[in-house]
From TrEMBL:
Organism: Candidatus Nitrosocosmicus franklandianus
Record protein name field: Uncharacterized protein
Entry superkingdom: Archaea
């Protein structure tokens, strides 16, 4: 498992818990994941 998958799993877990406060903070993780995926496509 790489760090990208780990962060995604954490986000999904927290989202399923319905913790909006933490979800707001983890939104940055989602943006980072999207940026990394875009870099992989371009690279």
């Amino acid at each position: 498992m790489n760090n990208l998958e780990f962060q995604a799993m954490i986000y999904v877990y927290v989202w399923l818990q319905g913790n909006e406060a933490i979800n707001t903070n983890l939104t940055r993780f989602v943006v980072d994941i999207s940026a990394l995926l875009d870099k992989k496509k371009i690279g």
